[in-house]
């Protein structure tokens, strides 16, 4: 809807497309003015509104610290549907993290008052505002319309709006109040502003309604300074422009003056079903609500899962970081807080692989009382193969409750795969193989390998392939390890020892929290990386973990390597295979014919055919030249 440079008229153009890059979260939107870009989405909700659009999207932005609920959904559409279906509070905005499939719902938006609201950059996360709200749900408290105070003159703002805003609806009214009322009760779209052009003149419309306001514009109030009037002015009135304003809540004190301190109110009705033991338990409060707190240690965060015996209303946050590491809980009996291990948002402390933090379960949104619960949570990341048990030691108020958790380090294993990614036990010299050291994917640990050796079955010969520093001894025979998810792998060609067909591989494997750093290895004049050493520090600090206190974990794997032609000595091979591998069945893989062998066979066949033809021709000529005998 571009304004003609000569006349104050908008020239509109509608383009329909059968595809959109907006479904790709990595696509970078291009800035434009006087244009709407709308994308069709499929939302499964009975609360979807019959309006031109349901949500407004701001890419790579979030509002920090105003979350009400956190859920995990597989798609953006599921997150938006959850916002429409939310019953515990009015969902005014949603944020979707495409990388972690995290959906955050909030009862606040860019127009909420009473707290600091600002859009901040968040790569990979989009911010959505719900435009299906009813007029009465546009604000948490009272909804007013007034002239915006944004540092730009009222006349210039009204002039820009009248020329460049796309009018969602226009009508003729008798007064400014009637135009305001029309915006307040509008149901076909969420009306956020209106322009009143003065008393009606004939049949001309004098009231224009818009869903836009200055907070919707990408450049904010500075947009009004960049608008130019058309060269031809028809002399139409500029009018008066009003925007939606959400009023702050005020609670009157006994003196009749507004009091900024919110009252603390707790439900003191006791539940008769709770016995004395439950009331005095450290995990229960005076209202009869009991808390079941679990700690899950991840690779980059500590997940604190809370379940309550009654619906909980309040906040859960990291002590000392109530603004940057918190979740608002509204009438829920199950919720979770993720404590980041890096940075200062949650202020998680770490010493030699032990990460600690303190969380607060607070009933009131502002003040802390004795009824609130404080838990000390701890995650111990042990780099050895020991199994660490989960323990919990309750302590009565006012002391903290300590919760300790240690994720068990999973046992690694070696797999040897062929070119088709099939696990093999019998191969031939020169076969291209993939040597893999694997651990499960759902673990916070990473692995690194060093001191790897290849041994003959009879243990008479040993060849080191990875040294004590994690570097390959001879990359031409066995290259260094490279990461593949949670696994390490090296692609090599099969070899064996002269006196034995069986080759045993053995590696020393250790753990580190998260991905491990590679070892920088020198080979000739080149430097190569091999994942054979531990990450020296965690991203959140430079605390090094003492490797002398760790236990080594050695793993091994056997493989049978044959020469070409060994299948002829099948009896001998079967006997050695039986001696080496017990009851395992040894499969001898027939070699595929090479190009040279096929050519040799072809030439041999041609020569034989030529010899046969020459012999036949010679015999026939000899018989033809021989004189015929006449019998008298």
TrEMBL record:
Pfam families: CUT_N, PAN_1. SMART domains: PAN_AP (SM00473), ZP (SM00241). One of its GO terms (biological process) is anatomical structure morphogenesis. This is ZP domain-containing protein.
């Amino acid at each position: 809807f571009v304004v003609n440079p000569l006349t104050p008229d908008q020239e509109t153009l509608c383009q329909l497309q059968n595809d959109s890059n907006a479904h790709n979260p990595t696509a970078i939107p291009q800035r434009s003015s006087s244009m709407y870009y709308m994308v069709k989405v499929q939302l499964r909700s009975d609360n979807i509104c019959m309006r031109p659009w349901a949500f407004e999207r701001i890419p790579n932005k979030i509002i920090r610290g105003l979350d009400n609920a956190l859920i995990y959904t597989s798609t953006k559409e599921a997150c938006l549907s959850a916002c429409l279906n939310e019953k515990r509070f009015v969902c005014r905005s949603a944020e979707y993290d495409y990388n972690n499939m995290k959906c955050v719902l909030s009862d606040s938006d860019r127009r909420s008052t009473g707290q600091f609201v600002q859009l901040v950059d968040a790569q990979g996360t989009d911010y959505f505002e719900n435009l299906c709200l009813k007029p009465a749900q546009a604000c948490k408290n009272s909804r007013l319309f007034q002239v915006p105070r944004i540092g730009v003159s009222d006349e210039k703002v009204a002039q820009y709006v009248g020329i460049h805003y796309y009018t969602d609806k226009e009508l003729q009214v008798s007064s400014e109040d009637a135009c305001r009322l029309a915006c307040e009760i509008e149901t076909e779209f969420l009306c956020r502003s209106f322009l009143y052009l003065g008393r009606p003149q004939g049949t001309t419309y004098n009231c224009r309604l818009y869903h836009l306001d200055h907070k919707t514009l990408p450049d904010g109030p500075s947009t009004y300074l960049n608008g130019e009037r058309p060269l031809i002015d028809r002399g139409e009135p500029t009018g008066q422009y009003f925007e939606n304003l959400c009023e702050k809540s005020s609670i009157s004190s006994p003196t009749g003056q507004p009091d900024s301190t919110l009252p603390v109110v707790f439900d003191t009705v006791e539940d008769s079903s709770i016995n004395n033991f439950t009331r005095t338990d450290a995990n229960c409060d005076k209202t009869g609500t009991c808390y079941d707190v679990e700690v899950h240690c991840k690779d980059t965060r500590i997940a604190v899962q809370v379940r309550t015996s009654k619906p909980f209303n309040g906040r859960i946050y990291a002590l000392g970081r109530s603004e940057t590491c918190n979740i608002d809980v509204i009438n829920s009996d199950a919720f979770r807080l993720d404590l980041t291990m890096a940075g200062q948002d949650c202020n998680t402390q770490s010493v030699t692989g032990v990460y600690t933090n303190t969380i607060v379960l607070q009933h009131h949104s502002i003040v802390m009382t004795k009824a609130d619960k404080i838990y000390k949570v701890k995650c111990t990341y042990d780099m050895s193969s020991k199994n660490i048990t989960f323990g919990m030691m309750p302590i009565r108020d006012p002391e903290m409750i300590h919760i300790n958790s240690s994720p068990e380090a999973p046992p690694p294993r070696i797999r040897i795969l062929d070119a088709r990614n099939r696990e093999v036990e019998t191969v031939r010299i020169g076969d291209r193989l993939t040597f893999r050291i694997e651990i499960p994917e759902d673990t916070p640990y990473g692995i690194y390998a060093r001191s790897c050796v290849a041994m003959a079955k009879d243990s008479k010969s040993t060849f080191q392939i990875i040294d004590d520093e994690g570097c390959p001894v001879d990359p031409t025979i066995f290259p260094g390890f490279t990461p593949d998810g949670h696994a390490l792998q090296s692609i090599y060609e099969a070899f064996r020892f002269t006196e034995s067909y069986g080759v045993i591989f053995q590696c020393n494997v250790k753990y580190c929290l998260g991905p491990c750093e590679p070892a920088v290895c020198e080979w000739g004049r080149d430097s190569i990386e091999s994942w054979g050493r531990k990450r020296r520090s965690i991203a959140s600090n430079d605390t090094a973990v003492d490797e002398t206190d760790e236990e080594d974990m050695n793993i091994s794997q056997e493989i049978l390597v044959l020469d070409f032609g060994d299948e002829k000595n099948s009896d001998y091979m079967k006997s050695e295979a039986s001696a080496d591998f017990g009851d395992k069945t040894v499969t001898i893989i027939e070699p595929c014919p090479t190009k040279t062998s096929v050519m040799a066979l072809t030439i041999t066949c041609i020569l034989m055919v030529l010899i046969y033809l020459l012999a036949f021709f010679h015999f026939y000529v000899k018989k033809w030249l021989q004189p015929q005998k006449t019998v008298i």
